[in-house]
Structure formats: C-alpha cells, structure tokens
Write a structure and sequence with these properties.
Strands 6, 7, 8 and 9 form a 4-stranded antiparallel β-sheet that branches. A 3-stranded antiparallel β-sheet has the order 3-2-5, covered by helices on one side. The chain is an alpha+beta fold and 264 residues long. The longest helix has 39 residues. The chain is built from 8 helices and 9 strands. It has 4 domains: 46 residues, no CATH class; 101 residues, Band 7 domain (Tetrahydropterin Synthase, Chain A, 2-Layer Sandwich); 34 residues; 46 residues. Strand 2 and strand 3 form a beta hairpin.
Length: 264
C-alpha cells in the first residue's frame, strides 16, 4: 500500500516537473498566460511554469526577419503607371506588444508598405524616380518605423526592388538613350576630325616634301575606301585612277600656295 502511494506520488512529481519545464531556443521568446491573462515572457534557455495554470501561448523569433511585398501598381506625379515592390527588414523587440497590440503583424506591415510606397512614388515625376531610390527608401523607413513602434517592432531598413514602367515607356527610354549616345559620338568624331586637320596642316607647313606626303595619304585613303566598298555584298566596286586624284588635289594646293605668295 505504501509503495503504491509512493509510486503515485513519484509519478505526479515527475509529471509536474516535466509539465513545468519549457526550453526556449536561442533567438526566440515566448509568452505565458495564467488563466487567460498575460503572466510573463520566457527567455532563451530553461524556464519553469505552473502546469494547469500557465500556458505558453506564443513562441516567436526575435531575430531580424524579411517581408517581401507583392508587386503593386503606383502612379507618378506626371501620371506614369509603374509596377513597384519592396522588401522590409524588421524584428520584434517587445513580444508582448506585438502579440496583444496587433492581430496580424505581417499583413499590417505589408499594407503600410504598399500605402507608403504609392504615396512616395506619387510625389515624384518619372524622370527623377530612378535616381531617387535612396530618398524613397529613407522616407519609407521613417514612416514604417514610426507606425510599427506601438506594435513592439523595429524596421531596420527598406529596399525597393522593382520600379518597372510599361513596355512602351521602356522602349521610348531606350530610343532616347540611343539617340543621345549617337549624338555624343557624332560630336566627338567631329571634334577629332577638326583636331586631325589642324595637326595635319601644321605638319605640312613644316615639311619640305609635302607633295610626297599628300600622295601617300591620298593613296592610303583610296585603298581603304575600296576595301570598305568591296566588303559590301550588294555594292558595285568602281576603281578610279589614284594618280589623277592626287595630281588634281596637289595642283589645287600648289595653286593656293602660289596665289598666297603673289598676294603677299
């Protein structure tokens, strides 16, 4: 009889001990309620509660987490429709407030991001939008950090992932960029040509065999031009006598020199 009582007591003690032990993982926290009311927060490691009276109602991570919002439509100040989304880096610093102050914290943050993102995009015109990512990120961070503080959350940073305009806008941007590159290349080429002519004129003025130099240069240009024409599949190659070209140009140069001499 005594042994049976001791066995029952031992069983109860063991059951009570096992039921009172709660092990919380590192980086997590847990909330305990006693008879339906908040009792306390368990920290990582070994914790004890009162069986039947206490209950662990929540265990959640206190580490930094990410929330990726789905793509949403937003309109710029100059009425360009964009598809935008963002990712939030956040963590819980007060598990009690997070659990009791808001029903669905991730859904609430997602709605906040969408609303704030649309608002910030609507303040800017399309051209300045892509160079203002950091400004938008900073504005979103300020709004979210202030709004989520009563929920026991800390938003560490916000990053915009997508700012995608419609296809026709993208094509127009690419054409404008290509035209700008072409214009710059033309200007640079013209400047290089002018500089080459200046250097050539200076070199010819300081040489005694300018006729031979001109003959060589014209012959070289002649060969290069014929090679380029010959590379085309649908062009006809016309050969001209380089001697007549060089002699004519040299005569013109000599005439210009003689006229300058007589004038002086």
């Amino acid at each position: 009889m005594v042994s049976s009582i001791l066995a029952i007591l031992s069983f109860l003690v063991v059951g009570y001990t096992v039921g009172s032990v709660r092990i919380i993982k590192e980086g997590n926290g847990a909330l305990v309620e006693r008879l339906g009311r908040y009792k306390g927060t368990l920290t990582p490691g070994l914790n004890f509660i009162v069986p039947l009276l206490d209950a662990v109602v929540l265990e959640d991570s206190l580490r930094e987490q990410t929330l990726d919002t789905p793509p949403q439509q937003a309109i710029t100040k100059d009425n360009v429709n964009l598809e935008v989304d963002a990712i939030i880096y956040w963590r819980i610093y007060d598990l009690e407030r997070t659990y009791y102050a808001i029903e669905d914290v991730e859904f609430a943050m997602q709605e906040l991001v969408i609303t704030a993102l649309r608002s910030e995009v609507g303040k800017m015109d399309f051209q300045s939008l892509f160079s203002s990512r950091e400004t938008i990120n900073s504005a979103l961070l300020d709004v979210l950090d202030e709004a989520t503080a009563p929920w026991g959350l800390k938003v560490n940073r916000v990053e915009i992932q997508k700012l995608e305009p419609p296809r026709d806008i993208l094509e127009a941007m690419q054409k404008e960029r290509a035209a700008d590159f072409t214009k710059r290349a033309t200007i640079l080429e013209a400047e290089a040509t002018v500089e080459s002519m200046r250097l050539l004129s200076h070199a010819l003025d300081n040489t005694d065999n300018r006729r031979e130099v001109l003959n060589y240069m014209l012959a070289q240009r002649y060969v290069e031009a014929n090679l380029k024409i010959g590379e085309s599949d649908n062009s006809k190659v016309l050969f001209m006598d380089p001697r007549s070209l060089t002699e004519g140009l040299v005569d013109l140069i000599n005439e210009g020199d003689s006229s300058n001499s007589s004038g002086s």
